[in-house]
Amino acid sequence: MTEKINWSLQVRVAHGPQIAATGVVDVEAYDKVSVEIAAGESQQVDLVPSGTERVGMVLIVPATPSADLSYEIDGTAIALDGAHAFLGAGAARLLGADPASLTFTNDTAEPARLDILVGRDVTP
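Now predict its structure.
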């Protein structure tokens, strides 16, 4: 059975243009993870069960965005200074060929809470 993940995005510049987009990502399964990363710590977070599942979308939302909160892709720290939305399989591939897990680092003085939603296919 296919699950449908509906998304919408609207960006407005004060006294300027606005851009809106909406879409649907069809996936066979989804996982929602809520995790807290201790202050000054790094933690690996499993996004999907191990295997060769295909990721169709990833949404990472920090409760308190910060340049001192990050995750690593291919050795590069990516600051979680806002929500990160990888909508569609092409965008999700920016997280790596098989993003089964990500390592988050919290260099803030407080624990950091993250909500993560992953849409994936489980059959080839």
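The longest helix spans residues 89-92.
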